Amino acid sequence: NQTMEQEGIFADYVRARLNLPCPDPSFSAESLLYRLNNTLAKGLSAPRGPIHINCKFREPLAPIDCAEAWQDSYLEGLGAWFNHEKPFNRSIPAQRSLSKELQDELIERIHQSRRGLVLVGRTVDDAQRKEMMELINTLGWPVFADITSGCRNNERIATLVPYYNLLLRSEKFRQWFKPDLILHLGGAFVSKALPAFVQNQEAPYIHLSPEKRHGGLSNRVTIGCSIDLKTLLPALESFNREKSRTADWEVFRKMNEGLTTRLRQYRSKAESLNEIEIAAIIDQELGSENALFLGNSMPVRDMDQFATRAFSRLIHANRGLSGIDGNIATAAGIAWGSGVPVTAVIGDMAALHDLNSLALLQHQETPVILVVINNGGGGIFSFLPIAEYKEPFGRYFATSHSYRFKEGAALFSLDYVEVSTSAEFCDALQKAKNKNKSSVIEVTVCKEINLKFHKNCYEAATLWIDQLVDSLR
Are residues 366 and 285 in the same domain? Predict the structure, then answer.
């Protein structure tokens, strides 16, 4: 917006920023290329991220003839660059590797561990993700992988523990499982229970990531290294996986299988479609040909708690400034930037706050399937203690409404379907994928039934976990 200060408008949320002056012959073309190249290099260096280039222009802005044309001599210094395909200048990123002393200490800790645990936080870089998986499969330790890590894949990681959020609800599990080394790869976590669990552990906590953020656990870090994992992998070639494999893995395997069976049985008895079932269907139906965007509120939390395969090529989430802003625009941006069809799962309030971004889907070449979970507004707040106080909860948190998104989809000429059962949702999702065009699927659920189903599911899972842990003693 022209009334706002443009310089530094994105603050520290960009990797680099560059403020360019108004076009003027006194600002050389060589200087322009040099600054652009260095700024771009910072955005492409790990951890990669957006950059902000602020360009100033003088009026008039219309394409009219200028009183004084630019001289060809302005580009004379770029002759050599025009005549070959090499960059004007190259920025070589620093090779981030461990010192021999620190690497030896780290390798020794890993070799000595007999009850190691790997945590995998948010990861956006494919190359980084591949290195993580190679390290994970080398170690053979139990893996708690965040849904936004891209590593929640039970076929590529044999020791994945997808239901760790449910396990951590059990006090008996928390008392039983005491890792002797915690290795954190990647960034932050969706889960609140996981950082709380780590805070209460006495084990050394090692964070290895190209990023410097510790996911809210900076006060627990024993060793924190901002490195490329590929520099560490050669040092683990002699790692004895069988010797280091935790004796608890067989228990984790039983927990995985038992919870999968019981959750499937529990979902089959549901009286109506609920948000746990929606997450399970999304997890089952989407393959590697799709990208997945998860809106805040319940979608990203339910996927983090109940997804086991997460085969989607890309999995993204966007916290936004207020949690629910810009979700549709983000999904459109992912489709545009990646060229991969996107399925976006968001809540009704997030959809209402970004309704005008449906215009982006109207002209999107790469399709976006927008799944709007409509529970009548503010369903996530029903899980909080404030829900017991009816008057303030209803006015300030529940934000109840009776809106439907059919007219919004029609306004932008988007295909639309409303579903309310599991069969209808599966059918609508499959048809939308086959059409290869953007569309809106509105899934209506009952807020009260959904809350009850979640609570009963948590209680049943915790009871079964408690019984299994008791049987180990």
Answer: yes
In this prediction the pTM is 0.84
**Do the domain assignments include residue 218?**
yes
Sort strands 439-444 and 116-120 into parallel, antiparallel or unpaired: unpaired
Residue 382: inside a domain, yes or no? yes
Whether the pLDDT of residue 1 is over 60: the answer is no
Q: Which of 205, 232, 247 is the last residue of a domain?
A: 247
Least confident of 40-44, 58-62, 90-94, 334-338: 90-94
The whole-number pLDDT of residue 332 equals 97
Residue 116 lies in a domain: yes
Alpha helices in 269-395 (DSSP H): 275-285, 298-306, 327-338, 348-353, 358-362, 390-393
Interacting residues of 391 by C-beta distance below 8 A, sequence separation 6+: none
Q: Residue 135 belongs to a domain with what CATH number?
A: 3.40.50.1220
118 contacts 185 by C-beta, under 8 angstroms: yes
- Alpha-carbon distance of 258 to 166, in angstroms, equals 12
pLDDT band at 67 (very low <50, low <70, confident <90, very high): low
Kindly compute the dihedral angle of the four CA atoms of residues 227, 230, 231, 236, in this order, to the nearest 10 degrees. 120
Answer yes or no: is pLDDT of 95 > 70. no
Residues 225, 299, single domain; the answer is no
Kindly tell me the burial class for residue 68, based on how many C-beta atoms sit within 10 Å of its own C-beta (0-12, 13-18, 19 or more): exposed
- The amino acid occupying position 287 is G
Q: Are residues 129 and 204 in the same domain?
A: yes
Give 163's DSSP letter: T
Q: Give a yes or no: residue 312 inside a domain.
A: yes
Report the share of the chain in percent with pLDDT over 70.
Answer: 87
Token digits of residue 405: 């998104």
Where are any strands of DSSP class E within 130-192? 143-145, 181-185
Domain encompassing residue 23: 11-82
Q: Which residues pair with 306 in a beta bridge?
A: none
Indicate which CATH number applies to the domain containing 20: 3.40.50.970
